[in-house]
Amino acid sequence: MSHQTLFVFDIETVPDDTTVRNLTGCESVDVAERRAELERYHLEITDGRNAFLRQPFHRVVAISFLTAEIHRDGGRESYVLNELRSGGEADYDEKRLLQGFFQYFERLKPRLVSFNGRTFDLPVLKYRAMRHGISASWLFQAGDKWESYGSRYACDWHCDLLEVLSDYGASSRVRLNEVCATLGLPGKFGPDGSQVQTMWDEGRIKDIRDYCETDVLNTYLVYLRWQLLRGVLGLDDHNRAAADVISLIEAEHESRPHLGGFLAAWGEASGGKYLL
Fold first, then answer.
1. Is residue 275 part of a domain?
2. DSSP strand E in the chain: where?
3. Burial 68-101 (b: 16+ CB within 10 A, else e)
4. What's the pLDDT tens digit per position in 97-149?
5. Which domain holds residue 123?
6. What is the CB-side half-sphere exposure of residue 179 using CA atoms within 13 A?
7. Does a structural domain hold residue 111?
8. Smallest Cα–Cα separation from 239: which of 185, 184, 264, 276?
9. How far apart are CA 171 and CA 163, in angstroms?
10. What share of residues in the chain are helix, strand, coil (percent, to 5)?
């Protein structure tokens, strides 16, 4: 299948502390105590090595994405940026957020691009969809045994940059922020993932979405470099795609200040050299 659209995505989550009663029998009504019990449980099952919650125990609070048209010329591709935004409405509702994501995904039938999406983002989205009784048939029924969203090595269906950049674990797996630092891209320049829970507790959903959108931009810019390395993008097409990002930011930074912050951080990280 020749996908017509790139769909670069990222999610942000907080602990689903409502599961702890069924999991450990904790009857506390205090959110902090329930979260602490979830961490205690994960430390216990990992012999004290890791308190990070596994995928079923996360609640999705933001889904941000970028879409771009894929144009082909022989074996080469070029991309035209369409939009960068976050799903959901002003009033947060996880079920509606997930329904919107999967409906949009099934309408576009895109090539997915993520950073650690195969290990974390998509599994979380699947568990939460099951929690809310949401169907995502295209994710499972499209393609075949070798070429599909579920095929680990089918990077034209889902390119998880964490996977491909490490040659699927043959070399060290690195963080998105570390990759960006080496490429002269912004990476983390404001909040980071450790602050999402605090922002959520303070009701700052817009700030979470803004942060998530900057991660999507970083992921897209890393993807452009990866496609250039592979020879799928030529240098001119890479630069045009990167220039599209700059144009989007310049058009929208007044109403979306986090984008202006991203461009300023990009300039600082690259020494003012945005294009190659």
1. no
2. 5-15, 58-73, 76-86, 111-114, 158-160
3. bebeeeeeebbbebeebebbbeeeeeeeebbbeb
4. 999 999 999 999 999 999 999 999 999 999 999 999 999 999 999 999 899 99
5. 5-270
6. 23
7. yes
8. 276
9. 10
10. 50, 15, 30
Start-to-end CA distance of the chain, whole Å, equals 31
Burial 213-231 (b: 16+ CB within 10 A, else e): bbbbbbbbbbbbbbbbeee
**Distance separating alpha carbons of residues 110 and 149, to the nearest angstrom:** 10
- Examine residue 150 and state whether it is found in any structural domain, yes or no: yes
Residue type at 116? N
In a domain, 237, yes or no: yes
Candidates 2, 131, 14, 8; CA nearest to 62 is: 14
| Amino acid at residue number 255 | S
pLDDT tens across 225-241, in order?
Answer: 999 999 999 999 999 99
Cα separation values, 184 from 2, 26, 128, 257, 276, Å: 31, 47, 35, 21, 11
How many domains does one find in the chain? 1
Query: Is this model's pTM higher than 0.70 or not?
Result: yes
| CATH value at residue 134 | 3.30.420.10
User: What gap in Å lies between CA 201 and CA 193, rounded to an integer?
Assistant: 14
